[in-house]
């Protein structure tokens, strides 16, 4: 199980979206469907889609902090 990450545009750092998926599930996400997340790193809200996301196979490679979603 890996984790979906995006690049925080403010901090320029790879941050976890808090979404854990298998590689196949990640590949099956629509590249045009957008998700909004509250970034735990900068406190801003970022929209992302698979096109801009980066799949990390091992979440231990990342800081273990989770963003919060509005709903
Ligand atoms: Zn951010």
- State which percent range the strand residues make up: 35-45%
Largest sheet: 3 strands, antiparallel
Q: Any idea what the shape is? A: globular
Strand order of the largest sheet: 2-1-5
Rg measurement, Å:
11 Å
Note the run of SSEs as H and E: EEHEEE
Distance between the termini: 24 Å
What's the total count of β strands? 5
Number of helices: 1
Structure report:
This protein has 71 residues and is mainly beta. The chain has one domain. The protein has one helix and five strands. Strands 2-1-5 form a three-stranded antiparallel sheet. The chain has a two-stranded antiparallel ribbon with strand order 3-4. A hairpin with a 6-residue loop joins strand 3 and strand 4. The longest helix has 6 residues. Zinc ion binds next to loops.
């Amino acid at each position: 199980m890996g984790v979906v990450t995006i690049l925080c545009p403010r901090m320029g750092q790879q941050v976890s979206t808090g979404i854990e998926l298998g590689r196949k599930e990640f590949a099956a996400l629509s590249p045009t469907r957008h998700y909004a997340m509250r970034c735990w790193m900068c406190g801003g809200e970022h929209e992302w889609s698979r096109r801009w996301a980066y799949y990390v196979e091992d979440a231990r490679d990342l800081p273990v902090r989770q963003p919060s979603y509005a709903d």
